[in-house]
Amino acid sequence: MTVRTRVAPSPTGDPHVGTAYIALFNMAFAKSQGGQFLLRIEDTDQARSTPESEQQILDSLRWLGLDWDEGPDAGGPHGPYRQSERREIYDQHANILLEKGHAFRCFCSSERLDELRKEQEVNKSGSGYDGRCLHLSEDDVRAKVAAGESHVIRMKVPAEGKCVVNDMLRGDIEIDWTQVDMQVLVKADGMPTYHLANVVDDHLMEITHVIRGEEWINSAPKHQLLYEYFGWDMPVLCHMPLLRNPDKSKLSKRKNPTSITYYRDAGYLPEALLNYLGRMGWSMPDESEKFSLDAMIENFDIKRVSLGGPIFDQEKLSWLNASWIREDLSTEQFADRLHKWLLNSDYIMKFLPHAQGRVETLADFAPMASFMFSGMLDLSEDDFAHKKLEPVDVKKVLQFTLWRLEQLRQWNKGNIFNEIKTLSKEMGLKLGDFNHPIFVAIAGTPNSWSVMDSMEILGADMTRARLRHAVNVLGGLSKKETKRFDKEFRVLGAEE
């Protein structure tokens, strides 16, 4: 048997370090066994998936040094490797489940399901679909379908007993079937959900081992049941521990930059970031902290993964990055890395015209443009002092701008300006006053060239990271403050 693993990211946002973490362990396991590693794009969420996000995923994983034997850009005998291009395959398999009586059509409206959830919350009677449409007669179903009634396809789930799922690291895991929902397999728009597409794709792509995050443990019974319904052998499961912040909470962009491209643009070496991710819950036999991808593959043993939540600590990553720079790069290689990073004419020419109009001597350029070559800026609360805005309003401007820009799919100066101009109007603030804290967050000073140009050039990841950093410099948001800000933010523009 040839070992085959995969990573299957969704192209719905910035490429996440968690994706790289799972990709690394899938690749290391497969290559250590002489096997193959695949990349599949799970883009069934058509409303949020973008080609730009997909390309970022491919570019960032390759920047790290992770490559795949089969994938949307590499091709292979098991394609297509984008789920949006496999819809007919899912339709066929959904019909198989319907014909065998393992799935049913559900015509419940979203309003009815919302009411059901509210009732369950009030009565504390558990959660999940109550099986109402499970008991419709075949004639009723045919009539509703013929009438064009909107519906989804759900899987049937046992009403009692336990499901036993075997995991490479955890052994047998028991989950009561009463805790497993009658999962939607095909949405009303005809697109499959993750659960159906994941199982069908893994089988048809001959995946032998599924190494994924532990957040998918509760979905394992649904997947195991689908394998049984189809009469297929299930891949071996291995659920990796989640990456965590230093305070032990789940790794999130609100407490740690989580985008791979942020670390690239902030000047981390791909070898160092990959090395650090390899240390997340795993260790070399000799416990060495610094090792290459080839060394990890040569010594890889999945049993050495620790189930304790690995801490993603930026200070530790920076220490390791410094070791790679000092110990593994010659001066010439260091110069070459700096050039490939940002010290090149392609990057500098993007903002040089803005600087040229402001300098009096060539020596003015370096301090003026230093923020274009930085990660997080060294800021203090005093930097954000404003004559017309109260401190709470400054924090609100930064947080609301962050939330608005997190929703922005096409990152360019025009779109950024439109979002900020609209937001300032909705908040009743003059654009100049509104932009002051944004200038400070992005450039470290209100006296810089167009902050819109700077944000476009720095990119979405770095811009958002600096806005989050600015909010934290101002004390961050308490739970109460977050709730209040969120309520105010949702009201903005509601009357338009």
* Structural class computed from helices and strand pairing: mainly alpha
Number of helices: 21
Radius of gyration over C-alpha positions, nearest whole angstrom: 26 Å
The residue ranges in which pLDDT falls below 50 over 5 or more consecutive positions are none
Determine the oligomeric state from the structure.
Answer: single chain
Strand order across the biggest sheet? 3-4-7
Termini separation: 61 Å
How many β strands by DSSP? 9
Question: Mind explaining what this structure looks like?
Answer:
With 496 residues, this protein is mainly alpha-helical. Helices cover 46% and strands 8% of the residues. It contains 21 helices and 9 strands. The protein has helices spanning 17-32, 51-64, 87-99, 110-123, 138-146, 194-204, 220-230, 260-265, 270-278, 293-298, 314-328, 331-341, 345-348, 352-356, 365-369, 391-406, 413-426, 431-443, 451-458, 460-473, 479-491, and strands at residues 4-7, 36-39, 103-106, 152-155, 162-167, 171-176, 184-186, 209-213, 236-240. The chain has a 3-stranded antiparallel sheet with strand order 3-4-7. It has a two-stranded parallel sheet with strand order 1-2. A two-stranded antiparallel ribbon has the order 5-6. Helix 6 (194-204) packs across helix 7, helix 16 (391-406) packs across helix 17 and helix 16 (391-406) packs antiparallel against helix 20. The chain is globular. The N and C termini lie far apart (61 Å). The relative contact order is 0.09. The model has no long low-confidence stretch (mean pLDDT 95).
